[in-house]
Every structure is written in C-alpha cells, then in structure tokens.
Amino acid sequence: MLGWAIFCLILALIAAVLGFGGLAGTFVGFAKILFFVFVALFVISLAVNAFRGRGPPV
After folding, report:
1. Is residue 40 pLDDT above 90, yes or no?
2. pLDDT in tens, 13-24
3. At how many degrees (to 10) do helices 21-52 and 2-18 cross?
4. Burial (Cβ within 10 Å: 0-12, 13-18, ≥19) of residue 31
5. Which of 11, 19, 23, 40 sits 20 to 30 Å CA-CA off 4?
C-alpha cells in the first residue's frame, strides 16, 4: 500500500511539471489517503502483535 502511495505521489509530481494542476491535486489526494490508511493499518498491526505476544516456547 505504501508503494501505491509513492506511485501516486510520483504521478502527481509528473502531472504538476507538465502543467496538469487538477490532475496533480487529485493524485496528491489519493496519495495522502493511501498513506494514512497505510499508517493506520501499520499501527493496528503493531498493537495486535503487542497484545497477542508470543506463547511459551514448546
């Protein structure tokens, strides 16, 4: 998911350089949404792993 956010950001930069301001703004919006979803899922994953912990060695 972070890869998609970076991809959208690169597309936004290319669109901005080429003068497509509206398209660049749309891609930046997508990149921001994907980035925050990625961060939220990462934090949830860390919390679940911390609460679950590891069982005793077998």
Report:
1. yes
2. 898 899 888 888
3. 170
4. buried
5. 19
Output the 3-class SS for 1-58: CHHHHHHHHHHHHHHHHHCCHHHHHHHHHHHHHHHHHHHHHHHHHHHHHHHHCCCCCC
Please tell me the distance from the alpha carbon of residue 1 to that of residue 37, in angstroms, as a whole number.
8
Tokens of 45: 């994953």
C-alpha to C-alpha distance for 39 and 28, rounded to whole angstroms: 16
Task: Kindly report the backbone phi and psi dihedral angles of residue 19, in degrees, each rounded to the nearest multiple of 5, phi listed first.
Answer: 95, 10
Residue with tokens 């930069």: 13
